[in-house]
Amino acid sequence: MILDCRDMDCPRPVLETKKALDALPSDATLTVEVNTLSGRENCKRFALSQHCTFTEESLSDGATRLIIVKGRGYVELSDEENPVDVMMQQERRSAVLVLFGALITALLSASCCIIPTLFMVFGISFAGVINVPELNSYRWLFTAFAVLMLSIGFYQMVIKKQIECDCAPSLTSKILLILFWGLFLFSLAALFYPYYEVLIWGK
């Protein structure tokens, strides 16, 4: 089956690809021809998100031919769901989960300074709950993990080519984006807290 998606504005190439794949049995092949960057990238992302495999060929007219094999793990989305927004949510959820890990390791990395600050703010009753010297000996490891996860999250959301679409993102996608940047900034603040702590509390 050949699907011509040339000159289609986003999200039409993905919608047409979804409709065609829904009608095909497992392991069937769909050929999609598209000549827009967003259409090509979004169709490839959609195929991967639906457990399909594909090969890519360049055509003489500048278009791209995607040969998609429908996988057995293909999940049919309801007609009300925008597949582009579903993909966007999946990628943003992944980045947010990475940032949660970055925040935890950043807090552990700065525990030598954050925990005494908590003692000061909330009272000495927190003393003895966590062995600060023991955690401090692993500070370099926590810092390395925090930097690694911050880098992965930043790559996924900023450096990596994002899904391009003229359709407005859903509220869930917007919330995930806000949550990502909130976690990113909070993680950086926690990671570098030992260096600016003196500016806040004095010597």
Automatic annotation (TrEMBL):
Entries under Pfam families matching the protein: TusA
Domain of life per record: Bacteria
Location of the UPF0033 domain: 2-70
Record's keyword annotation contains Transmembrane helix: yes
Spans traversing the lipid bilayer: 96-126, 138-155, 175-196
Keyword tags: Membrane, Transmembrane, Transmembrane helix
The protein's name: UPF0033 domain-containing protein
Species, as recorded: Sulfuricurvum kujiense
